[in-house]
Amino acid sequence: MSAEVITVDSRNPNYPAALLPKKGQAQFPRISIIGDAEILKRQWLGLFCSVKCPGDLILRTYDLARALRDAGVPVIGGFHTPIEKDCLDLLLRGKQPVVICPARDIKNMRLGKDLKTGVEEGRVLVLSPFEGMGRRPTAQVSECRNQFVSTLAAAAFVAYADPGGKTEALSRGFLGAGKPLYTFETQYNKSILEIGAKPVNPKTLAQWAGSLNALAVDTQ
User: What are the pLDDT digits (tens) for 114-155?
Assistant: First the structure.
């Protein structure tokens, strides 16, 4: 049996506040929701990683997901790339809020056991601005979804951005919007560190995640 879905627009109090500016409403006029929309009022950390990730960063990214989970940091993402999917599995083992934004219509979407449990407990939300889309996301729809996540996120962590790729372009737009962007302190992410991403030492992930605060991402 598929999960209950509600669809809202800007006139509905459950429509995300981050989308209320004219540009947001124009790009994402209607939002479909599975779960308790109240948790959308939290401040969210967006989590991104390019499809291809250097082996040295894979374990670090898993450590990051665990640190965010243990610190109770609310995380939002598309969780589409292989590393992002693994991170979602780790995050769902915690108690912190998670927002999942598939690049597809979520009507008639069937939830796995962990997702279903998270939704029932009021800590997992499935969110989509797409109606009438198929189950297999196109590159264009995935790119639009990442823009959607970026708009909703108060800050972001990019585990790896392929130089010259779409995640790097997304990082540039995020920084251009004046939002804090974090990444691993490594030569692999030199391209986004040079444009303003804040370096995070992989050895101090727990301390860094704790500094974000479980209730609100630090946007200072």
Answer: 899 999 999 999 999 998 766 666 788 889 999 999 999 999
DSSP string, 39-70: GGGS--EEEE--SS--HHHHHHHHHHHHHHHH
Specify the pairing of strand 181-184 against strand 198-200: parallel
Closest CA to 101 of 21, 19, 192: 19
Cβ–Cβ < 8 Å for 160, 189: yes
Q: Which residues contact 89 (CB under 8 A, 6 or more apart)?
A: 114
Instruction: Give the C-alpha separation, 142 to 74, whole Å.
Output: 22
And the tokens for 11?
């006139």
The predicted model scores a pTM of 0.92
Higher pLDDT, residue 209 or 139: 209
Q: What torsion do the CA atoms of 103, 88, 192, 70 make, to the nearest 10 degrees?
A: 150
Among candidate residues 177, 201, 182, 204, the one with its CA nearest the CA of residue 192: 182
Q: Identify the CA nearest to 214 among candidates 18, 42, 36, 41.
A: 42
Joined together, the tokens standing for residue 72 give: 């109770």
Sheet strand arrangement including 6-8: 6-8, 31-34, 124-128, 98-100, 75-77, 45-48, 155-158, 181-184, 198-200
In angstroms, rounded to a whole number, what is the distance separating the alpha carbons of residues 62 and 64? 5
